[in-house]
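@channel anyone free to eyeball this complex?
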Amino acid sequence: MRRAAALIALMAAPGMARAHAFSAGSESYGAFLEGAAVPLNDPDILICLAATGIALGIWRARGLPQVWPGLIVGLVTGLVLAPLAPVWIGLAALGIGLLAAVAGMAALRWPHGVILALTTGAGALAGLASLQGHDWGELPLAIYLGVFFGAHLALVLPAGLIEASRQRIARDWVMIGWRVLAAWTGAVAMLLGALSLG
Amino acid sequence: MRPIPILMILTLLATPALAHSGAGMQGGLMSGFTHPLFGWDHVVAMVAVGLWGAFLGQPAIWLLPVVFPLVMAFGGALGIIGVPLPAVEQGIALSGVVLGLLVALAVRAPIWVAAVIVGVFAIFHGHAHGTELPDAANPFAFALGFVVATGLLHLAGIGFGFFTALPWGKWLVRAAGVVIALVGAAFLTGVA
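replying in thread with the prediction:
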């Protein structure tokens, strides 16, 4: 019972853990870069977004543009609601990264709605995890823009690479290689999650 | 008297051992990468997965190496969070014997049977790695190095398995299966 109570208390105490500290102050470009570095340097967020990008690239040709609005909506929602995020939000992001990795590895004909939900969820969790622990009005707009840019970079880059390889190298082994990468990403997500819990 | 000055020089030249206590990104990456490479029982089983996949042909040649790291990570996660698994070392040694024999006998099992066999053994391998995990390692770097090394061992097996395309290559690969089974048997019986 005590453990459960402690866990509930932990989950109900957002804002305690300052996951990402920012020091650029009012200097806009520095703040933008700091913000952009968050999704690229935090393994939980990076795996969440990169695995989703890989899944989108494998899903179908030109898959990303079909669900891009979902990413934007999810990301903006996550960034706005970040002060409410609990401390375990990074683990949740890792979980959705694992789901995305399995979806990419399986390479099934997933319905549009499933992939849209996955992308929106990944965007939302990335936004929440990036600025978790910071109150509204505490951070300059440049940091929000930086996180938005960095998150896009983490997701769009793998999706774009897969799309390019699909168009330029029409061989079976190319997509198999990307599916292997998805499996490896999922394996890293699983180990990282266990290490966070262990 | 001579050994003493030599010993003193060696002591002065001694560097800290980083093999299993790597700190930071680089240390964690190296620690994770080398972890699956320590122990022949692990290495031969992972190479055998690739070899068997090559024998089974499409789609097993890529399905087995895709399944193994993910299931192995699941086993690793169980080990890290402390879920007990009985007879782990025996299971690992047995995997060498079974997978080696499957390659040696060129068994063409249905794909789901192959996936289940490989998956079950992968849990044992992962669990052993998970419980031996160094505390000091950078978690992300360690996990990355660990998965990449495992995957590269499979790719080595697949690469070697391409010899099956040659007339004499099948016998070469089957002979490798015999060696793998013998290594597994040596660990199973306590010889190694």
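from a first look: Residues 10-21 of chain B have pLDDT under 50 and may be disordered.
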